[in-house]
Amino acid sequence: MTSLPFQTADEAVKIVKSGDHLHWPCVAAAPEHLIRALVARASELENVTITHLYTEGYADYVLPQYAGHFHLDSFFIGGNVRKATQNGYADYIPCSLSDTARIIREGHQPVNGVFIMVSEPDEEGYVSLGTSVDCTLAAIERADYVIAQVNRHMPFCYGDARIPLSKITAWVRHDVPLAEAEFPPLSEQDIAIGRHAAALIPDGATLQIGIGNIPNAVLAQLGGHKHLGIHSEMFSDGVLPLIESGVIDGSRKKTNPGQHVATFLKGTQKLYDYVHRNRNVRIDDVAYTNNPAVIAQNPKVVALNSAIQIDLTGQVCADSIGSTMFSGSGGQLDFMLGAGASEGGIPIVAMPSITAKGVSKIVPTLTVGAGVVTPRTVVHWVITEQGAVNLFGKPLRERAKLLISIAHPSVREELERAKRGV
Question: Which fold has domain 6-173?
Fold first, then answer.
């Protein structure tokens, strides 16, 4: 085992100066121990800008009392920073995830320092970024300093996640189990959506599928399929039974055949154990995983995404509620374009027809100020628990008719009246 010159977190973060731009990785890989040590220095620092993708848990740097000390410009708005973003204490950078690494590499968002959480080093002098590379590799390439929290619980993942010890400026030891996902039981609505989506997926398909009840409902229906592959922004525990049974083997993929590819992961300890030192798994730069041209090289790409609203012409809002930012564009357009260009590809927007509060997600027109994440020119399949329709190549009035057919029955009459204006 390589001997590393460990410091305390408090000592390591003293390298941060007022005016610095910092970056750290997303989801389970966010180095909370280092972040807490940074926030403890707030009174000594001014105008420190932070960028990252979606994180969970601790994010006190966006609290009002730290205004002027820290400022967040996120590439995706997680629940832990949503209120702060909506209230003006943090901000959002509109972009597809495929562009986040480019934004950093080209200097549109400068980076002075990077905080990372890494695995134990291997015998060849490398550590692994583990469950998240996202655009953090780009930040490491541009940074003046990199502080690494070594955590024995971080799985050693391959692909772009593997970086040499020479990239690290300061080392901190802090062992803590990774945050785990929780999976609530599937509802009848989830199962119906999953059934409609699974019926479209052919043998030999390459899947882009994320985390949540709808992706899990789709995966649960695929036990009878053959030779599926994964090239995704992320994946979670739902794929494990299909890998174990041989349904997912990656044998039909053109890029990284036989390997399961993502740019970040979140799941339970079972997932983290599976990916540890597993050369069948690659955690790669988001500029690769989310590049539509790379995605399109695989045949039969099935891209499964969701929406906040879809209007009767097929415009998809997935990032805001009206003009109020809620999440972000994420990788939706990346994979919708990639799947659309893939031979036999199937881009899908899947969602409940109606919210838990009884509000239809299929609407005559998007709410004023709503962002169009996927334009109507790109949309193919739309699925709700009521059915599945393909809008691609269809004129506006036919699109409206098809969407009304999968809207909740309680709103179809209202949508029919609105259709006359389409």
Answer: Glutaconate Coenzyme A-transferase (3.40.1080)
Q: Which of 46, 182, 188, 233 is catalytic?
A: 233
Q: Is 343 exposed, middle or buried (0-12, 13-18, 19+ CB in 10 A)?
A: exposed
Distance of alpha carbon 4 from alpha carbon 165, whole angstroms? 9
**Same fold across 6-173 and 188-419:** yes
Which of the 8 DSSP states describes residue 42?
G
For the segment 290-332, what is each residue's pLDDT rounded down to a tens digit?
999 999 999 999 999 999 999 999 999 999 999 999 999 999 9
Q: Are 29 and 176 in contact (CB under 8 A)?
A: no
Is CATH 3.40.50.970 correct for 188-419?
no
The answer to whether residue 233 is catalytic is yes
Nearest CA-CA partner of 391 in 335, 339, 346, 332: 346
Report whether 300 contacts 346 (CB < 8 A): yes
Axis-axis angle for helices 412-419, 396-405 (nearest 10): 170
Q: What is the pTM of this model?
A: 0.96
